[in-house]
Amino acid sequence: xxxxxxxxxxxxxxxxxxxxxxxxxxxxxxxxxxxxxxxxxxxxxxxxxxxxxxxxxxxxxxxxxxxxxxxxxxxxxxxxxxxxxxxxxxxxxxxxxxxxxxxxxxxxxxxxxx
Length: 114
What we know:
The protein is α+β, with helices and mostly antiparallel strands. 55% of the residues lie in helices and 16% in strands. The protein contains two helices and three strands; from the N terminus they run H-E-E-E-H. A three-stranded antiparallel beta sheet has the order 1-2-3. Helix 1 packs antiparallel against helix 2. The longest helix has 33 residues.
């Protein structure tokens, strides 16, 4: 007679789990905005700092690389440092997402939308 009530309890658990996951995702987004990574090029002559969300926040260039004859080299080093920082930011975001999905019992490597 009350066979379906068991499924209602399961649905309530699922809704609660979904709400918890939504809260954890929001917290993770806030955390990613404050975590930083540093990309480098030219053996550390150029360093780009970015948040784990990929927003560039700082650029540090060693003055020794400023030579008008090497303008293209300097530009390449700057781009390489920025790309390195962006890749590290993406890796950090995936690492943090992996921690979240692992805690939820989801398969390793499952990507959830940001």
